[in-house]
Amino acid sequence: MDSQLLNVLALIVSFLLFIVLALKITSNLIKTEPSPNIPPGPWKLPIIGNIHNLVTSTPHRKLTDLAKIYGPLMHLQLGEIFTIVVSSAEYAKEIMNTKYLIFASRPHILAADILFYGSTDIVFCPYGNYWRQLRKICTMELLTQNRVNSFQPIREEELTSLVKIIDSHKGSSFNLTKASCVWHEKQKPRFISVLKEMPLGAGFSVGDLFPSAKWLQLVTGLRPQLEKVHRQMDRTLEDIINEHKKQKSKDKYGQGEAEEDLVDVLLKFLDGNGSNQDFCLTMNNIKAIILHILSEFDSFEDMFVGGGETSSSTIIWAMAEMIREPRVMNKAQIEVRDAFDLKARVDEICIDELKYLKSVVKETLRLHPPLPLFIRDCEQTCEIKGYHIPVKHRVVVNAWAIGRDSSYWTEPERFYPERFIDNPIDYKGTNFEYIPFGAGRRICPGSTLGLINVELSLAFLLYHFDWKLPNGMKKEDLDMTEQFGLTVFKKDDLYLTPVTARPILNREASMHGKKGA
Ligand code: HEM
C-alpha cells in the first residue's frame, strides 16, 4: 500500500474512533446528571467540556479569572475529567486539613505513570502504606536538618564559585537565570530539561483529559515521546545505581570511604540485599524516587547544594521583583552587608538574622509560588460547605489565586515584603491564605532545604554586587511573563548588570577578618 493511502486510512479510523468516543462521553454525561448542589462553573461544550476555557500558557491565571466569576469552589469538565477548583483559604483548609483523608491522593497522570515507574515516586504515589514508608525515609533519612546542615560548606563553596563567575562579567549584561539554574554550567541529563518544559505535572495533557481514548495518546505523539524519554532516563538511572553499588563493594573491602548519599540510603531498602529492613523497595521504586530528586536538582552531585527548579525559579523572581523595586533591594542589601561586613564573607551561620531578606523570600513565594496548582483526587463522595463533591472528581487547589486574594492581602499585586515583618504567618501550612509549600499530609518535605538554598543564594548575590538593568532598560519594561512547566518560571531569562560592591576574599583572609573594599 502506498503511504498516501495509509494516511487516508489512518484518518478515517481516527475519525470513526472520535465519533465512538463522542457518543460514549455524551451518553455518560446524560447518565450522570449533575446534582443540583454541585459547585457552579462555566457553561460546558459537548465532549471537551471546559477545555476551551483553559487554552492558555498560564492555566493558574485563567482559573483565577474564572473563580472571580463562578466563586471559590468551581466545577469544570475537562474532557472526561470532572474537576473542582478551589480558590479560597477556607475551602483549601477543608480539602487539605479537615477532610484530608478523602483528598490525600494525587490522580493518575500519564507522564507520572510512564516516567516515574507507575507513579511509584513520593510525589505521585497514592496515599497509603507505601507513601507513608517513603515519607518516613524522606523525613528521617534524606531531608533531616542534620543532613541539610552537613552540606553547608559545599553550598557556600558553590556559591563562592558562582560569585566569581558573576564578578568576571561585572559591568556587562549577565544572564542570571542561566547561572542560577546551572552553577558552573554543569550539565544535567538532557531528559531533565525536557521534563522542565512539559506542563505535565498538572495533568492537563490531552492524554490525561481523555484517559479512555488511549489512541489519542498515540496520535498526539505524547506516549511515544514520554516512552522515549523514559528509556533514556532508565539507562542513566541504571548507571547511577550501578556506580553506587560498585563503590559500596569497594568500601566493604576497605578500598574507599565515600560519604553516604541519597542512593546509598535508598539501596539499604533494596529488596533482597539482606539488610533486614521491614520495608523493601524494588529497583524501579528506587529509580522513581531518585528521578524526582534529580528533576528537583541541577545535577546529581548538586543534590543538596545547588538550586533545584523550585529554588532557582524563586531566586529569579525575587531578583526580578527587587530590581523593579529598588527601595526593597537597597534595604535587603543594607541588612545583608551589615550582617557580614565584619567577616567579609557570607555564611549560613548568620542567615537567621536576616529578617528582611526572609520577608523578601516570603513575599516572592506569595506572588510566585513555583507550584501554583496542587492536584488531588476525591476518594469518597462528600459535602463541602453545602456543596456536593462526587467521588473520583479531581480537585485542583489554586495556591496562586489564594496568595493574591484581596480578602486576605491588602494591595495583593504589590511586592511589599514589609507585610511579613512581625507577622506570624509561616510556611507550615497552618495559615491557608499562604501555602507555597502546600499543607496537610502531603506538604513539601523539602522546605528547609529549598529555603536555605534561596536565602543563601540571595544573600551572596546582594552582598557582593549592586545590580542594574542592562542597556538603560527601564524597570517598567522588564517582562514578568510566566511560563507554566514543571514549575512556573519567568519566561524570559533575567539579564542584569552586576557592579562589584564587595570583592571575594579567599577563605583564609576572610577568616582573619580582613574587610572587602
Ligand atoms: C522553594 C522550594 C520549594 C517549593 C516552593 C516546594 C513546593 C512544594 C509543593 C507546593 C508541594 C505540594 C504540596 C501539596 O500537595 O500539598 C511539594 C511537594 C513535594 N516537594 Fe517541594 N518545594 C520546594 C523544594 C523542594 C525540595 C528542595 C525538595 C527535596 C528534594 C522537595 C521535595 C518535595 C516532595 C518529595 C514532595 C511530595 C510530598 C508528598 O506528596 O508527600 N521540594 N513541594
Automatic annotation (TrEMBL):
<dbReference type="GO" id="GO:0016705">
    <property type="term" value="F:oxidoreductase activity, acting on paired donors, with incorporation or reduction of molecular oxygen"/>
</dbReference>
<feature type="binding site" description="axial binding residue">
    <location>
        <position position="444"/>
    </location>
    <ligand>
        <name>heme</name>
    </ligand>
</feature>
<protein>
    <recommendedName>
        <fullName>Cytochrome P450</fullName>
    </recommendedName>
</protein>
<keyword id="KW-0479">Metal-binding</keyword>
<keyword id="KW-0349">Heme</keyword>
<dbReference type="Pfam" id="PF00067">
    <property type="entry name" value="p450"/>
</dbReference>
<dbReference type="GO" id="GO:0020037">
    <property type="term" value="F:heme binding"/>
</dbReference>
<dbReference type="InterPro" id="IPR002401">
    <property type="entry name" value="Cyt_P450_E_grp-I"/>
</dbReference>
<keyword id="KW-0503">Monooxygenase</keyword>
<dbReference type="GO" id="GO:0005506">
    <property type="term" value="F:iron ion binding"/>
</dbReference>
<dbReference type="GO" id="GO:0004497">
    <property type="term" value="F:monooxygenase activity"/>
</dbReference>
<dbReference type="InterPro" id="IPR001128">
    <property type="entry name" value="Cyt_P450"/>
</dbReference>
<keyword id="KW-0560">Oxidoreductase</keyword>
<keyword id="KW-0408">Iron</keyword>
<dbReference type="InterPro" id="IPR017972">
    <property type="entry name" value="Cyt_P450_CS"/>
</dbReference>
<dbReference type="InterPro" id="IPR036396">
    <property type="entry name" value="Cyt_P450_sf"/>
</dbReference>
<comment type="similarity">
    <text>Belongs to the cytochrome P450 family.</text>
</comment>
